[in-house]
Write a structure and sequence with these properties.
It is built from 11 helices and 11 strands. It is of the alpha/beta class. The protein folds into 2 domains: 9-77 and 178-237, 3-Layer(aba) Sandwich (D-Maltodextrin-Binding Protein, domain 2), CATH 3.40.190; 86-173, 3-Layer(aba) Sandwich (D-Maltodextrin-Binding Protein, domain 2). The strands form 2 sheets. Strands 1, 2, 3, 4, 5 and 11 form a 6-stranded mixed beta sheet that branches. A 5-stranded mixed beta sheet has the order 8-7-9-6-10, sandwiched between helices. Helix 1 (19-27) crosses helix 8 and helix 9 (208-219) packs across helix 10 (223-233). It is globular. The chain starts with 8 loop residues before the first strand and ends in a 15-residue tail after the last helix.
Length: 270
């Protein structure tokens, strides 16, 4: 008779930007304590919403859409200025000329952010199409394409204009941006609520050299580029400016009909 696995169930993408947050569960002091699946961020949100996992690293917009969940405080994937891995790609240097945008189906937060940038800051409302993250196909039928995660750093940029979404957000708001946070279901098993995600993050940050070694070959990026990305572009703990940016993002998402309401922030253990 097979004994059911009673360990907490986690989901988080295996993008480079989330690697420091999951390293401890895969290779560090928390190895073996959980079961971990690694779908794209949008799928992580679906697994959490359907109760198929206890905790997931989820696009922050989904906090406002999924019922009966809380945020894990002080841990995130965000950026204060330039993120590099969440980009809008166009063949024009004028966003006012963009009439259609292909949105990476892996994304939820960034897809909403692109809509906000156009509707709130550019003052236009292109047509939107959800697509597989294949830049050539996306731009064959659209004026612009949203690409996130590792694919957002590894495509050839020759002949394109590349707009960094965190940079655009900061230019218009003066604030940082939170792309994803750990979220936990209210009915999660007690062992899931006892996990120390900040400790896991700190272990991962100390293991950046090892993480970069694991990603160097599959991503074909230099060690220097990846270390700069993980230390200068990505923030793994939200500061006041980033939290304020998240609140403003929720307000603008509600203004433009991307969420139905704004729930107050609820944190696990609070």
């Amino acid at each position: 008779m097979t004994v059911p696995d009673s360990r907490p169930r986690l989901a988080a993408s295996s993008y480079l930007n989330s690697a420091p947050l999951i390293w401890s569960f895969l290779h560090g002091s928390m190895r073996g304590l959980v079961t971990l699946t690694d779908p794209v961020p949008a799928k992580c949100a679906d697994l959490l919403a359907h109760g198929e996992v206890d905790v997931a690293l989820v696009p922050v917009i989904e906090y406002q859409r999924i019922a009966d969940i809380k945020l894990i405080g002080n841990v995130c994937v965000g950026s204060k200025r330039q993120v590099r891995s969440v980009v809008l790609v166009t063949r024009t240097d004028d966003l006012n000329q963009v009439r259609s945008v292909a949105l990476d189906q892996s994304s939820r937060t960034s897809a909403a952010l692109v809509r906000i940038i156009f509707q709130e800051f550019v003052g236009s409302k292109p047509e939107w199409q959800t697509a597989v993250p294949d830049l050539d196909r996306m731009l064959a039928a659209n004026d612009a394409a949203l690409i996130i995660g590792d694919p957002g750093m590894t495509f050839s940029r020759d002949g394109y204009h590349v707009w960094d979404l965190a940079t655009l957000w900061h230019q218009h708001t003066g604030l940082g941006f939170v792309f994803a946070m750990w979220m936990i279901r209210d009915d999660a098993q007690p062992a899931a609520r006892e996990l120390d995600f900040a400790k896991a993050r700190d272990e991962g940050v100390k293991a950046l050299a090892e993480i970069v070694s694991q990603y160097e070959k599959p991503l074909s990026l230099s060690r220097e580029s990846m270390l700069h990305y993980l230390t200068e572009n990505i923030s793994f703990a939200p500061d006041e400016e980033m939290t304020a940016g998240m609140q403003l993002y929720f307000e603008l998402a509600r203004k433009h009909g991307l969420i139905d309401e704004i729930k107050p922030l609820r944190y696990a253990g609070g």
